[in-house]
Amino acid sequence: MSKTPPARGSGKVNWLLAILLVLIAAGGSAAGVYFLMNKGAHAGADSDAEAAAEPLPAPIFVPISPFTVNLRGEQREERLLYVGLSLQVTDKASEEFLKRYMPQLRSRLLKLFTAQTAAELMTPNGKDQLSAKILEMLQQPMATPQPTLRVTDVLYTDFIVQ
User: Where is the signal peptide (predicted)?
Assistant: First the structure.
């Protein structure tokens, strides 16, 4: 009974086969990562091209000269409000209309401001409520016929309560 020694080549074949499988798996992983990264780069380039093709419209602001008004005070104290603001509009028609009717707009704002109290206006919530009242006031027609005013925001440029 003689034992035959194992073939020397079978051990090497097993090692080569294991190394070959590792290389194939690594290559497949690298190819998958490259494909996904390259696909993401093309998607980003496409969205960048779309963004460049559609420039954002420039905002349109209608500045209103600052006001100084007396406020209603608690216990007959005299308080002042100094406020400057701009209205943000979405179209030229709204801008032109507001500029043409600025004296009427300023008169309405003056009446609105004098109806406020200092305590209300000193809080951020009070300023937000005043902005909402201004937007609501702008919905009331100033002329007949009047285009639909597309005012999107009231921006305070100066605001001092004294």
Answer: none
